[in-house]
Amino acid sequence: xxxxxxxxxxxxxxxxxxxxxxVLFWLGIMLKNLYRRWLGVLSGSSELEVWHSLDRFxxxxxxxxxxxxxxxxxxxxxxxxxxxxxxxxYQ
Length: 91
Prior knowledge:
Number of helices: 2
Structural class: alpha+beta
Radius of gyration: 19 Å
Largest sheet: 3 strands, antiparallel
Strand order of the largest sheet: 1-2-3
Strand content: 15-25%
Shape: elongated
Order of helices and strands: HEEEH
């Protein structure tokens, strides 16, 4: 067994681990969003919900959900959230 083969095997293992982490990360976000929607439906809420999270690179991602229309968006900045809200109220 050479150093190159060990290094290659280690890199392959790291790649698989990162791929699995990415899948689990997005699965967690999807389940959290589904749970929020489910709570909104059960409570009969017609309010907006806005929250933020960090993506796998540490960048803030904004999430908005309108229970009354079922519309949602994943945005990159507060300015985009404001535009989305303006569109909701002025359509």
